[in-house]
Specification:
Blueprint (H helix, E strand, L loop, with lengths): L2 H20 L4 H10 L1 H8 L9 H8 L7 H5 L10 H28 L22 H4 L1 H11 L10 H5 L8 E4 L18 E4 L1 H7 L8 H11 L2
Helix pairs in contact: 1-2, 2-3, 4-6
Length: about 230
């Protein structure tokens, strides 16, 4: 199989995964890939796009699945040789800029208001909300490795759920990504100790409160400044 054929197959595989796991079926994209091939389709999609044409990209970024986007697949090392430096730069910039915006919106909505259903939709009584997190956070081994090393106290404020709530709070804590997956380019290997840390829900929300995700040190400084 040629490299161009591999690229086409990667787009088709991504289409099916996005449909099954995210609920986004980009049928027009699939038709274009099958009709024109993955390379021609990708080169066309890397041209400047309007808001309507970014629907698929935005949907996948909002679901924290940037690895399924055309841009991320293009940036995979094995495919980069098929594209010009300008096209690769466009893919990288697009993932960074749009991913940053989407990540902020999703973080604010899901972390500050985790019980709310998505706005703009109607739901029957008893409707379920499926909360999606990135693939690394879904991996229980990564979470377990992080907590085995760091423990269950918040690394920002030191809060312990077990100390405050007893058995009910034992082994409860959020796990925060120091390097948000939605803002990474292409493939990303996670170091559970260096890239993850335990934070309480309050500090987790504050880390994502502004337009920029704060570092642990920045939030500690802000917290210390309020102590009197």
């Amino acid at each position: 199989m040629s490299l161009e054929s591999e690229l086409t197959q990667a787009f088709i595989d991504g289409y099916h995964v996005a449909g099954k796991e995210v609920g986004y079926w980009g049928r027009r994209f699939l038709q274009a890939v099958k009709r024109n091939g993955g390379l021609a389709t990708a080169k066309r999609m890397l041209l400047p796009r309007n808001e309507g044409q970014r629907k698929g990209l935005d949907a996948l970024l909002e679901a924290n699945r940037p690895e399924l986007t055309v841009e991320a697949i293009v940036l995979q090392p094995r495919f980069q040789g098929l594209f010009t430096a300008a096209e690769l730069a466009a893919a990288k910039e697009r993932l960074g800029e749009y991913g940053k915006t989407i990540a902020t919106l999703v973080s604010e909505r899901q972390r500050l208001y985790p019980d709310e259903l998505d706005p703009g939709q109607k739901y029957a009584e008893g409707a379920k909300k499926q909360i999606r997190v990135n693939a690394y956070e879904r991996n229980p081994k990564a979470r377990a490795a992080c907590l085995k090393y760091h423990g269950y106290n918040c690394v920002v404020c030191g809060f312990s759920f077990e100390s405050r709530y007893g058995d009910l709070g034992r082994e409860f804590i959020h796990v925060h990504h120091l390097n948000p997956l939605a803002l990474t380019d292409g493939e990303y290997k996670l170091d559970a100790v260096a890239d993850l840390c335990p934070v309480c829900p309050n500090c987790d929300a504050m880390l994502h409160r502004g337009t920029e995700v704060l570092s642990i040190e920045e939030l500690r400084t802000k917290l210390a400044a309020t102590d009197v």
